[in-house]
Design brief:
Length: about 45
Amino acid sequence: MQPKATELKRQVVKIINGKLVVYLRAMVQVDAARYGNFGWLVQEII
C-alpha cells in the first residue's frame, strides 16, 4: 500500500524543516555574502 498524500507531505515538510532549513541557516552564518540572498529567498518561498 502506498502512503497517502498527507503522509508524504508530512515527510517532506519534516525533511525541509529538519535538514534544508538548518543547513541554509548555517551557510548564511558561515558566509552571509554568498548565501544570504539565497537563504532569504528560500525562506520566503517556504
